[in-house]
Amino acid sequence: MSQAERRARQTHRRGLRAGNAGRPADGARLVRAGLDALGWREDGDGVPGQHRALAARLVITLAHLESELGRADYGLALLARAERTIDPADRGIVLSQRGLMLMRKGRWAEALSELAAAEPLVGHDPELLSRVLLNRGVLHLNTGAVRLARSDLRRAAAIAETAGLSLMAAKATQNLGYCDLLGGDIPSALGRFELAARTYRLTAPGVLPSLETDRARALLAAGLADDAATALDAAIAAFRRQRRDQHLAEAELARAQAAQMAGDLSGARRWAGLALRRFRARGNHAWAALAELTRLRAAFAAGAAVGGVGAVSGRPEARRGHGRMGAEAEELAGRLRAHGLPKDGEQAALLAARAFTVARRRDDAVRCLAAANGRGRPLEVVLLRRLARAELAAADGRTGAALAELRAGLATLHTRRGQLGSLDLQTGTAALGAELAGFGLRLALDRGTAGHVFSWLERSRAQAFRVHPVRPPADPEAAAVLAELRQLGFLIRAAELSGDRPDPAHLASRAELQRQVRQRSWRAGGLGQVIALAGVAAVAAALAESGQALASIAVHDQRLLAVTIGPAGQARLIRLGDFGAAAEAALRLTADLDALAGRRLPPRLEAVIRESVRRQTLALEREVMAPLLPALGRGGVVIVPVGALACVPWGMLPGLRGRPVTVCPSASSWLAAWRAVGVAATDPTGATARSPVLVAGPGLQHAVPEVSRIAAVYPGCQPLVAAAATVDATLRALDGAPLAHLAAHGYHDRENVLFSRLDLADGPLMAYDVQRLSKAPGHVVLSACDVGRTVVRPGDEILGFTAALLHLGTATVISSVSRVDDEIALATMTAYHRALSAGARPAEALALAGVRAGPADAPAAGVASDAPLAPFVCFGAG
Description:
Blueprint: H1 3-20, H2 24-38, H3 52-68, H4 72-83, H5 91-104, H6 108-121, H7 126-142, H8 146-162, H9 166-182, H10 186-203, H11 208-221, H12 225-242, H13 245-261, H14 265-281, H15 285-307, H16 316-338, H17 342-358, H18 362-371, H19 379-395, H20 399-418, H21 423-428, H22 434-447, H23 450-460, H24 476-497, H25 504-522, H26 536-546, E1 548-556, E2 559-565, E3 571-578, H27 579-596, H28 603-625, E4 636-640, E5 661-663, H29 667-681, E6 693-696, H30 703-713, H31 727-734, E7 740-743, E8 746-747, E9 757-760, E10 763-766, E11 779-783, E12 791-793, E13 797-799, H32 801-808, E14 812-816, H33 822-837, H34 842-848, E15 872-876
Parallel strand pairs: 1-4, 4-5, 5-15, 6-7, 7-11, 11-14
Antiparallel strand pairs: 1-2, 2-3, 8-9, 9-10, 12-13, 14-15
Helix pairs in contact: 1-2, 1-3, 2-3, 3-4, 3-5, 4-5, 5-6, 5-7, 6-7, 7-8, 7-9, 8-9, 9-10, 10-11, 11-12, 11-13, 12-13, 13-14, 13-15, 14-15, 15-16, 15-17, 16-17, 17-18, 17-19, 18-19, 19-20, 19-22, 20-22, 22-23, 24-25, 27-28, 30-33, 33-34
């Protein structure tokens, strides 16, 4: 073997490895060096006869790498040039590479033909055969033929594993995960992605951005647009560095979809436009059509945002605009089908039907709906079809039929939610049904009856509470990650308490471990069991039994409304004030309470902040409570809030001061919690006789005195204090406890909600930890700052430490929605337990404890200047 041939073969092997590892630019450079060694030139072969077959092999590889770098036509030309001088035994390689390049250009039928012809020619070589099957599987995925894709990919994985080709097997595993995603099994898809990622991290980290793009698509399918956007931003930056033009354009297209889901419609159009230009530059007309569809969907959504979801505009110019959009979408549907993309063609046809409905072109809308009547389509298409049918039915005046379509769509979505074991994903899925929920509320309001509106609200929000929680199985690897995360939390907190800045390396490690924990939780499957919705009659009966009234608050067109069920069981629909004004008042009130708690302020500044507190409570009273009070009687009140109102300390409002107030995510969740309390009270096993669990965390001046005073209320109770108050000891005590009180520093982590936490002796007890309990505690008191706060996702799905306990099945949680002064917390909690032990229900005990104290004879005056500001709230059953 000559030195030139030896060098060419060596650089060829290195170039192949670089390309397979996601570094096509490096691979192309190495392969060109090998061709130079053989004397190859762009303007003519220049290669001696004995080296021509080897040079042809290198040119074949170079053709693929140049195609990956965005020069697909040049790659095809190189391939044609190599084909003239290849060894006949290498013909299968040429067909395989041409099939891959044609697939990258969206020429599906031609690509399939080339790959099918290559298969028998490469059967003797496990690496080549597994690559052909892998690429054909990806092609089938692109065209929606999931069954055929799965068959090819399973064969590719089996051949690669037998031959010890770990990277090829990992790529097949990744794409099998995408099969699972298209089949609706998100946990399985994420599990396969993680298996592939483990191999990539060891052998080919350059391939990870491609995997992250697929993972982001799975998160979009679960409604987690922000998480998907974060993953895609990182992938896009990597693809730019790698100069992988096709992958970059695909990631930009997914980024457009994430922006639209997050409500950033201008961003969605911008990202789709970037992808469209890139696809067109590559001559990839199929993918360009997908980008056109995404951009058109964002444009339609922008029009709906102005005119209202499901609204039919009366303005002639608006109707003409939607008519043009419908025609464009219908033409695009035909092109997508011609490109072998029936699923996407159906989406375009449904978009056309919606646009024609708005334009009042009924016959055109009916025609497009008939053309989009496929079966077995992805959830997104199923929901879009239901929405399009509902809008057409509503335009025809068939409100009942429209609502039936919307109910069926939300029921399908809830079935998907029940298949997910992760609370993170369960709450995220509501985003997928946001348009159905909004349109259904509009139609229910048009009917004008309180019963219809109540039923719709119960059907369309806080649905994750209807899913039976999944207790994760024992997992030593997960336990080790959590232990490391807890130790980092301990070190970071110790630095903060000493006045030092936490070590940046510790902060970075914590963020990475949190990411790992979240991704691990996403892979949990659900039980498929859901809790039935509560009707007006059942809720009214339970309210009458408890002597309470309920107000379920909602927002429509930026105006607040509420359905109340009064003491006598009657349901009323009441229009309230401006949502924007109420939300702003709620946010300012939280900021004011945070500023006042636990610090000495100059008297003049404190007076200014207290005056602001008074103004915000009066604003909330004006916009929300004042119209409701006549319908709520004089007893206890159950409030189902909306959006930013989820963190209002309702007991501080003048009209509710001194009254038992309970906050719940929905009437159905309140009824389930109320019934659970009744069952626990008649428990024949005597579990309710267990001593309360009392825990005092470190670094909190009042914690030990607080639990000591409370222990005196319950003779024989032994608190966990000092070094005994560890995470594991606390979790063991909490498991199935009838009553628990935790006095500890608390933190609401808005960026990573399920990592909201309480500080204990050996580190943080996180919201994730409570999911390890085999049985939920019945009643938990969190005497800690702001762990009653929540992040509210679309569909009024809530996440946070308090919400995690409620999701688990805890009937009642007492917690604060802002920071709390230590002395006020000590006095309030002691009084609370004394009232509780005397027989008061939790909401009554909280009212009696004086946290809502103020001048009883002047409720309209707002919060008095000397009123204690302890924003504890009773969540759950009350």
